[in-house]
Specification:
single chain; alpha/beta; seven-stranded mixed β-sheet; 11 helices; elongated; binds S-adenosylmethionine
């Protein structure tokens, strides 16, 4: 029987399984990373199109079942047993994954950090998470996750998958998305970028000017600025007025009255 803690819901509908694999536009030289192959419903279809599949599966029992199922083609399937989040990923061209929803966020950022960059990933997620990934400026679900992921990738909604396509059915609806990394990635320090986005999405409908007047935010910027000066051998002006400086920067960019909910990646990069 299936292990609920590992989010084991097997995709039963062959049309959906084929649809997911087709969306990856595989070619015969591709090495595919499959995360959470389960009993192999996607794996068998991927093997028909690609050169090799490297599958990371946490449950050794399912890994054994999958080994049995591939039989003659096992030389083109490599199974790594373990938690994908803690695994050093090998080279791959394409990633296909229908994994449990608890690891959605760590998985997507792990993929985006992977080098060299892969061509695309076709990923199945809980519907709401998927809609956040593809949300555009002005959409209700546009959030920190949307911005951080769209900084590094083009993301597109591929299809809805209702819970009845799985056995046992999960509690929530799912969606498949396709993600294509932007190559080369924008040259930003992700920790700093995420720090900024985090501040602005606490109140995404407030003006940036208002967000940057909050005392804890100003305190943090001042501390960071002092650390920056110290580590770069720069003099710190005694009379520095961080509040005023921050507002000047926003005005010089014409962003003081803008709201995070409506800004695109280029605005955040500015
Ligand atoms: N891909 C199969 C399918 O579509 O029928 C199975 C999908 S099932 C929703 C998720 C699979 O991911 C299970 O086989 C589960 O054991 C595996 N899994 C769960 N957590 C994992 C993790 N952290 N790393 C790797 N595999 C994991």
């Amino acid at each position: 029987l299936f292990n609920k803690d590992l989010g084991q819901h097997i995709l039963k509908n062959p049309l959906v399984a084929q649809g997911i694999v087709d969306k990856a536009s595989l070619n015969s030289t591709d090495i595919v990373l499959e995360v959470g192959p389960g009993t192999g419903n996607l794996t068998m279809r991927i093997l028909e199109k690609a050169k090799k599949v490297i599958a990371v599966e946490m449950d050794p029992r399912l890994a054994a079942e999958l080994t049995k199922r591939v039989q003659g083609r096992h030389n083109r399937l490599e199974i790594m047993i373990g938690d994908v989040i803690k695994t050093d990923l090998p080279y791959f061209d394409v990633c296909i994954s229908n994994t449990p929803y608890q690891i959605s966020s760590p998985l997507i950022f792990k993929l985006l950090e992977h080098r060299p960059l892969f061509r695309c990933a076709v990923l199945t997620f809980q519907r709401e998470f998927a809609m956040r990934l593809v949300a555009r400026p002005g959409d209700n679900l546009y959030c920190r996750l949307s911005v951080n992921v769209q900084l590094y990738a083009k993301v597109q909604h591929v299809m809805k998958v209702s819970k009845n396509n799985f056995k046992p059915p999960p509690q929530v609806e799912s969606s498949v998305i396709k993600l294509e990394p932007i190559n080369p990635p924008p040259p930003v320090n992700f920790k700093e970028f995420d720090g900024l986005v985090r501040i602005l999405f606490v109140r995404k409908n407030k003006t940036l000017s208002a967000n940057f007047k909050s005392t804890p935010v100003l305190q943090m910027i001042e501390n960071n600025y002092k650390t920056f000066c110290a580590t770069n051998d720069m003099m710190i002006e005694d009379s520095i007025d961080i509040k005023q400086k921050t507002q000047q920067v926003l005005e010089s960019l014409d962003l003081a009255e803008a709201r995070a909910a409506k800004l695109d990646i280029d605005d955040f990069l500015k």
